[in-house]
Specification:
With about 475 residues, the protein is α/β, with parallel strands linked by helices. It is built from 15 helices and 24 strands. The strands form 4 sheets. It has an 11-stranded mixed beta sheet, sandwiched between helices. The chain has a 6-stranded mixed beta sheet with strand order 17-18-22-19-20-21, with helices on both faces. The longest helix has 16 residues.
């Protein structure tokens, strides 16, 4: 493709060099540059791509997209732009020929529930015969093909390539988790969503966003580029976002007046049932994932599919097919007289949701094992500690992904919250040993919650990433072949 084709619709300041230069590929990582490619100089959180132009050119880059000038020798074209990230999003869309042009694009944002909602929508649409693409935290999928996921929402260049692959594979609808990071960093800026969904907002990512208001505002950006909005009206931030949405809106909820709502809820330790009410009628719903949060996730998914014109019968059938989502309130088959539940909960609201749900069916003690990630929002650590202490009969404070932080310092911050409650606790820094302690001390009727890791199969300690799969670990400790 020629450079001038890539620049269609792009806001650039000036071009120095050959404007008709062929472009063989696009890159933002200088280590991956190939001969004849274009290199985007992106200002990251810790590094600046402008500092790697020599490496990119030495590997064959012939075009640079920059925000500031750099000294480069040789036959290289420079394209100066106000914002390299924005330029990359739109140039990538041009390079991959606007891949979502013929695909329904559905974006889910919110603090909690994004992953589960995408899988619920996927199940409903697949049950109507559609081929589905999915982009999210656990993995990316094209139909049944699984592609490893590095970020919740990929960089714009990687995203457009993945969308192109989906289009080539004849995907009908694409469902993606849209993180606040991706909205703030312009990763989805060139995407036009058919439907945008807001699930909820609670404290998280304040290491990246300066305040909860900024965090909320980042989420709200999704609806500036969505043809239709679906919003949880029970969430006060959802009500605030709704006021600023210029397009058509469907609201969902349980307690506030909504377009799509649930009544007659019955929540057990194995499932939730309720009556789904819509402007076009109502239908009983069964979902094999317990908890009030599961009702909200099901309402969000049902609202998406209702907006797409899917019948209520197909919505009910698709939801009933989902028995569990990897690492989301996942009951492990241990064969013991106590229960072990794996969940990704790593926010105050997420942890409270699963503990309140588990408390309802716990016959003996609720044992909560958790930690908090390093190099992330420190303010939520004592808050999560207090929540765990409030609902649990025993807390085991351990490591999550400490990253570059001292694990015991993170634990001490959590401990300060737990100590505000009467709940007994034990500190075991080594997470595997902590799991061993929890399982060896669990008694008949206890429920053990392993919170924070969920689907993750690794632990980040310092600058090392080690294999750490809690399903495998529980299986090894209990002597089972697999779980």
């Amino acid at each position: 493709m020629k450079l001038r084709e890539l620049l269609k619709g792009i806001d650039y300041i000036k071009i120095e060099g050959l404007q008709d230069r062929p472009v063989n590929d696009l890159h933002y990582d200088s280590r991956k540059v190939t001969p004849g490619s274009l290199f985007f100089c992106i200002k990251g959180l810790t590094v600046d791509g402008h500092d790697y132009t020599d490496q990119a050119v030495s590997k064959g880059a012939k075009t640079l997209v920059l925000e500031r000038d750099v000294a480069i020798e040789g036959d290289v074209t420079k394209v100066f732009v106000p914002n390299s990230r924005t330029a990359m999003a739109y140039m990538a869309r041009n390079y991959y020929k606007n891949p979502t042009k013929d695909i329904k694009l559905i974006g889910i944002t919110g603090t909690n529930g994004k992953t589960t909602i995408t899988y619920l929508v996927k199940s409903i649409l697949e049950n109507t015969g559609e081929k589905i693409g999915l982009i999210g935290t656990i993995s990316n999928m094209i139909g049944d093909k699984i592609i490893p996921s590095r970020f919740t929402t990929p960089e714009s260049l990687d995203l457009q390539k993945l969308l192109r692959d989906m289009r080539d594979e004849k995907v009908d609808s694409m469902i993606m988790e849209v993180s606040s990071h991706s909205l703030s960093l312009g990763r989805v800026e060139s995407c036009e969503f058919d439907i945008g969904v807001f699930s909820n907002l609670s404290q998280d990512h304040l290491d990246f966003h300066s305040s909860m208001d900024e965090y909320r505002d980042a989420k709200a950006r999704l609806f500036r580029q969505s043809k239709l909005a679906i919003i949880n009206i029970d969430d006060e931030n959802g009500r605030w976002i709704k006021e600023g949405v210029a397009t058509k809106v469907y609201t969902y909820g349980i307690y506030k007046e909504a377009d799509i709502y649930a009544r007659d809820l019955v929540i057990s330790h194995k499932e939730v049932t309720f009556n789904l009410h819509t402007p076009k009628g109502s239908i009983p719903i069964e979902l094999g994932i317990p908890g009030i949060f599961s009702v909200y996730n099901a309402l969000a998914a049902a609202s998406v599919c209702y907006a797409l014109g899917i019948s209520l019968e197909s919505i009910a059938h698709g939801l009933k097919q989902v028995k569990a989502v990897n690492g989301r309130f996942e009951l492990l088959d241990t064969g013991r007289d106590y229960s072990v539940i794996l969940d990704y909960a790593h926010t105050p609201d997420g942890l409270e949701n699963i503990l309140k749900t588990a408390k309802e069916f716990t016959k003996a003690r609720l044992i909560t094992l958790f930690g908090c990630g390093g190099d992330r929002d420190q303010g939520k650590r004592p808050v999560m500690g207090e929540i765990a202490g409030k609902y649990s009969d025993l807390c085991i404070i351990t490591s999550d992904n400490p990253r570059s932080e001292e694990p015991m310092e993170i634990i001490r911050q959590i401990q300060a919250g737990v100590e505000k409650t009467p709940c007994p606790y034990k500190i075991i820094e080594d997470r595997r040993k902590a799991i061993e302690y929890a399982l060896h001390n669990a008694q008949e009727g206890d429920v053990v919650i392993l919170a924070g890791k969920g689907h993750e199969t690794y632990q980040i300690i310092g600058d090392k990433t080690i294999h750490f799969d809690e399903k495998e670990i529980v299986s090894e400790i209990l002597g089972k072949e697999h779980i």
